[in-house]
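so the lab meeting is tmrw and i was supposed to have these ready like two days ago... anyway. pasting both below. for each one the top line is the aa sequence and the line under it is the structure tokens. i havent really looked at them closely yet so no promises
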Amino acid sequence: MTTATRDLEGFTARIAELAPGLRVETGPGATGAYAYDASNYRVPPQAVAFPRSAEDVVAVLRACREAGVPVTPRGGGTSMAGNAVGPGVVLDFSRYMNRILEIDAQARTARVEAGVVLDALRSATALHGLDFGPDPSSHSRCTLGGMIGNDACGNRSVRDGRTGGHVVALEIVTADGVRAVADHTGLHPLDPADGGLVARLEADLKRLVGDNLALIRTELGRIPRQVSGYQLQHLLPENGFDLARALVGTEGTCAVVTAATVRLVATAQASTLLTLGYEDVVEAAEDVPQILRFAPSAVEGMDEAIVATMRARRGADSVTGLPEGRAWLYVELEGDDQATVNTRAAELLEALKAQGRLTGGRVVASPAERRSLWRVREDGAGLAARLVDGGESWPGWEDAAVAPENLASYLRDFRKLLASHELTGVLYGHFGAGCVHVRIDFDMATETGLAVMRRFLAEAAALVVEHGGTLSGEHGDGRARSELLEVMYSHRMIAAFAAFKNVFDPDGLLNPGVIIDPAPLDADLALRELPLLDTTFGFPHDADGFAGAVRRCVGVGRCRSDAGGVMCPSYRATGEENDSTRGRARMLQEMVRGETVTDGWRSTEVKDALDLCLSCKACSSDCPVGVDMATYKAEFLHQHYKGRIRPRSHYSLGWLPLTSALAGYAARPINALLRGPLGRILARLGGVTTQRRIPAFASRRTLRRTLRAAKTNESAKAVLFVDSFTRAFRPEVAGAASRVLADAGISCAPQDGLCCGLTWVSTGQLSVARRIMARTVAALDGGDDRPIIVAEPSCAAALKRDVPELLGTEAAQRVADRVHTFAGALTDLADQDWSPPSLPENVVLQTHCHEYATFKGRRPADLLRRFGVRSVDEADGCCGLAGNFGFEADHYDTSMAVADLALKPRIDHLAGRPVIADGFSCATQIDHLAGDQNVRALHLAELLDPAADRPGETT
């Protein structure tokens, strides 16, 4: 045992003594993900603590002070400046300290713990017609504690300003473990015994301010977005010694915030959105002063690279409503009645047309279109990180701000500065507040590239100061910009900042290296040159192969959202960082680096992090940078178990296409056997849960009868690929699909006996998968260019994506290009005048995750609405079974927890509505959830089948 290990064990033992039951994690498997936030930096912590109360925080801080161990508070971990990583103990407030303690609708205040996610607060306050004003783009996962730490703003900062303006009081723990409340009158101890300490601290602060009155008045608070440094102006006599506001934006360097009382605002009664097109972002910025005269609630800007990437990743229909242009502004207007708002919008549009810079402009009336447009803007950081051309860009100078009237001149000079260093930047941000976010194609992997970055950042700092601006407008200084504060402030101001921190944290243990005594801005960078790994998947879209693929994750954390999209079902079920897409990607990055995770593909820590990944592929669509964790997991499992005995379920479930084909020859006796005691024994031997009923195998006779009936006398226009799941468990779907397609003018020739290889991919048996896929491609590519229609969405997705990426041949790509889901075929290939039989008015729908992720704009929900179904109640998430995952004994509980999120509540309240689920695993999960309700999920083909007795009947 090393000295460092003994010291860490002694330290964690001391924490356990002071706070029995406090969860503290150590070791690379637990802490690896916490070495990163959404910045360029990597700082592995010694331990991660998960406090449940302020008393737990006190215990950690006292133990850390005794041992001289640094402390870094952390919320959602979405900091872009390196504010949320540190070398000692990271306090994760998001896991347990996430309660809304009180909402006082009359006083328009809320009291919340530091780990409350902004959207959770907004959902709760909306019930009272109230909202929390600041709304960062990360609102679905950022925490109030993090927003307070950075003094965050958001898309509507033109109206609502910064977080500090909405803080009434902060409940804090000082570096020596004293609990106190900071408010607009000063600091107040929670324990009277600490009164003397708090009084001395307050006296020191007043002395500091008194000694620097002129300095503070002239250098601080000059523009609305001046977040850099400490906000000492709030301690001036004329501002009433508002210590709560002074502590906002201190980035965890002065005290640890455990809870806050915040001010709420009334929800707008009416609003509208204008989208305005321009030739470039400078032209857009020129119009901002004119727009501000109309008192907008939001003025947001972005350039064409973000829009192009969104359309490439999620389909052309993912961005609608933008006028012609290469840069755009979103302008939101709000008011008390819609007519007045609409009049203002029309007047603004006319005024801007008169300015002569617009390439186009329109009022966006559709709420769905508005949501789509806001998502493009909110995903800006991720979309800009990995562009459609494969280029990578990074933060570091992503948060500078100037006065809005100076924005155009600043951007004009800033673009010249980029060009002089041969750098490219993707621009977006809060143009109405003069705050520009930009991600730049820095080369941080070479010494030459780092030298360019340092020169650029120094010159960029000087440039923004020349334009009267600030290094940071809402993200904080962090590790990225603290070294540059001396460019913006005088030496006396820097000394005053240091004195302010020293009053609170004389030992320098709170978030060291940030703001005061900063680490060099190029220290602890995560990016470096890494060796190319020999992999089975080709990763054709990532220049550095597997290492480049896992590097896609830049930490923006959309996978930690509780709602919207499908990603990430396991995180939504467990709430654990390591069970998020981001946590897994960070562990894979650690594996590739080989420093804390040293055993590469054999790593048990990485295997454990990947264990609860359902391989749903939702991240490949929902993640702004296109992380595809299902593929990374398949590659890892392949390498991890190469030459080794695998888990039993990899054999029993991974080889299911083969065993199910054999079972079809004796389906009746095998089904009877599996329903009895021997079946439970076989399930246990195969690593399969006994809490599910094994689906009944269909006989080969049933399959042959179905396929014979599916044949038509017409010349086939398409191939109906009869996948392994349809063949083995529900051949009736093949018959229904064939009839519906023929009725829609798409006569099909059934193709049986082939397999997409999916089950071998999901269990990481890639060598077998490649052989299976190669055989399938050879059979389908024999000069035939007819569409290939696949009833099972997961198999369609495997043919569309996994087959070309694993085989890497032109033949595989030709086959992939021909693949359609059943819903996609009806969308794209059906006769224009075709309509299905009468359909029920209301249905419940579970869309397969692979279909959601792979076949953009071709989803069953859209088709059902087009066919006249009035209400499509779609379970917005994974069903939880996810192929082999939910059948594995170790994963049953997680599978059911995922189902509880969206699907089960709908099954429990069907009210006679039919349930549609094209995916076999989805249908199987529905059957399991329904129990004895006598409900069977229908494939869309069965609902539309012209031969059905009663389409949509639940039997």
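ok protien two:
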Amino acid sequence: MPRCTPRTTLDRLRTPRRFPKFLKAASICVLVAGLLSPLTQAAAAGGTAGLAANDYCGGQCSDILPPGENGNATLAQILLNQVFGTQPDHAEDQLGPYSNLAAGYSTLTDDKINTFFNDASFGVASDQVASTTKPGGRTDVTIVRDKKSGVPHITGTTRYGTEYGAGYAAAQDRLWLMDVFRHVGRGQLTSFAGGAPSNQGLEQEFWRNAPYTEADLQAQIDSATANAGARGAQALADANAYLDGINSYIDASDSGRYFPGEYVLTGHKDAITNAGTIDHFKLTDLVALASVIGALFGSGGGGEVNNALSLLAAQSQYGVTEGTKVWESFRERNDPEAALTVHNGESFPYATKPDTAQGEALPDAGSVAQEPLVYDRTGSAGTAKATGASATAAATTLTSAKRGMSNALVVSGKATASGHPIAVFGPQTGYFAPQLLMLQEIQGPGLSARGASFAGLSMYVELGRGQDYSWSATTSGQDIIDTYAVELCQDDYHYLYHGTCIAMDKVERTNSWKPTTADGTAAGSYRMQVYRTKYGPVEYRATVGGKKVAYTTLRSSYMHEADSIIGFQMLNDPDYVKSPGTFQSAVQHINYTFNWFYADSAHTAYYNRGDNPVRASGVDAEFPVWAQAAYEWQNWDPATNTAAYTPASAHPNSVDQDYYISWNNKQAKDYTTAPWGDGSVHRGNLLEDRVKKLVAAGGVTRSALTRAMADAALADLRAEDVLPKLLQVVKSSPVTDTAAAAAVTKLSDWVTAGARRKETSAGSKTYANADAIRILDAWWPLMVKAEFAPGLGTDLYTAFTANLPIDESPSAAHGPTGAHAGSSFQYGWWSYVDKDIRAVLGQPVQGGLAQKYCGGGSLSACRDILISTLKTAAGLTAAQVYPGDDQCSAGDQWCADSIVQRALGGIKHGRITWQNRPTYQQVVEYTSHR
């Protein structure tokens, strides 16, 4: 067994927890000693591996991916971690440097970047080789791991061997996680890992969106490869070789008894006899995995039924004409004050509001009911926690506020000190243990890249660098999901398709579980059931004009989860990507809704991607439409779910703009994104303001751009961009109330200090300006409701909060991201508050709200509301504002914000201080080009 890492600062931060009963037994040491006897995988240390000659970054490419590369742990390692807090090698060694940037960025210089990041150069210096492995005894591939981070550097002399090595390395680092997510994608997690309510919610959330049968999964493989010619055939061969590598490791680890210990703890393997099996992976598993990733990060749109409900509420409150104006002003489809990625004024119209909407199918008031997913609950599936998890999963699945995350800062060489472009970018994929992504370098025939890939899909690097270029992505969120009102006929399970009454297709999944060592949830079971139509799965039932309908959701990437493999293959091919143009061509083969960024030694580029359907004339993408031929996507074929898509030139794109920023903000003028909230204040402004200032000054360096990112990562968006205007209203007359005046002083001092949520010193676990932060956290929800609810009315205010949550502070467990997740300030009412307060102050507002809300537009009445709610907020204790959870005691502000690596296996990690930044991140500046 590899040695255990000594306790570190992170370990000391770990909160003592109650250990499972099986870990309390007096025989624990005997058990661990017995488990140490089987030898773990042999790997020869030493060897020779030099730095690659095909690296044009000049030592100026860096990356980081916490908590660590090693996401596998034997049973003995898991037990030692649970009892003593020790870590397997490379399980946590990237977490400290990642966390430390929050305290160290202000004095960062170029020569200190790799204090907080890994050196992402190709190859491994001979004195830095930790191990060399010939997977499966093959002679055509070698896996070298470096001493610092344990990243696998895979070098093959044949294409098959290279991909075999990639699969083997993936299983070495993420086998248990890969197994978990192939079961999530199939809606079978509880039967595999246990019936904990969180597991129930997870499988329900994803299976509702992608209720595929095994035949569906295979059909997607056949389609993706058959339609891509020689590259499709190569992708299929690569995937098969990758699977062979995974399965070779499964066999080797099983016979050698160094497989992940979670298989024992969940009852799949016996620790004493080694009885039990770990199922081999197959091609359809990869599609199941891809469906989860696509649903998490690359499927913008949906929410049309919620939009319809809030429109009807607005029309009920104000009348049809004025209510529609109010709704449109809150929707901010094309807000002129929104931060843009393509900021040169170029227009890219998409999903714009039609002059006269056609085919709308708005529900009758009070008729909408969400389609049930779970039936026939038994045992623990019927508990309040289980049903609550189901409700949360259903809400998460159907909300239009998707998990839009990731950021990018890219500066043209015209503004840098060296004359070469600089990029700091990466995806925010949350924080998990092990991490969803894994690092690797892959070198072989037609393959040359280093970077991150989702575990189980790492036959290619998905985000990272090539020989002389780097690329990354942010979630774009444009609308590729439409809702259709399918008219029912005969009964509730038949519908009209082009005038013919046909039956819906029922897909079912029955899961059962029993208690295991890992999950003591009592035995239970349930059946998941989805009705599918040619227009997609049924999500709601309602009536429209008295007619019974089923609302279905049709996603352009539905039944096409595997198609993007071709684009990723191209990105890894040094003979294909050689320029901004070839980069843009490569990502055009990726159907997920992403913004893609590129940098080499001379150029930068941007391209927005996703299969944007061409809608029928007059269809408004915001609302449900009738499932009739006249309102279908153009050239739509229900048998293959293909249609006409907007051409490449219609997607926002650019080459060599002075700079690009993206934090899931609006891409370009006239390009409508599905999530609400792309208005005057967006977290994209935190990057825009900083990068614009750097570019104006010139001489930008890697460390300067990293500092800008890190500073934005600690900023409270509300405090930086909205609070000064709120204080302007409050201070429009002298504040005579003592409590209110004290709160105003604290908030003002915080704004002056930079409005950051930052520790007083590294590791203090106490914020500077802690009282001001507490006050704003308490004030924001009180203030927003008092500002808007009286004018909107309860029903409309509630409906709008279903479209867009009012807050997403780091500690807001009620926000769409949840607690301890890092990503913050993506979804909230900051733009509404900003525009409304500016209007009340008499300041110019472009794209303002249809009415003034704070105090009915009266400055003095608005001021009274703000002061009254501020006094209430200031009087709330820290324990009331931060009530505590399974991680933190009540009143612990720092802990409430802190980031937790959410355990998806048996290894636990310590909390780190909050920062709002990519999980995997690159800092790059190329010095030359091929």
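from a quick look at the 2nd one: The CA atoms of residues 775 and 874 lie 5 Å apart. The chain has a mean pLDDT of 92. will dig more after coffe
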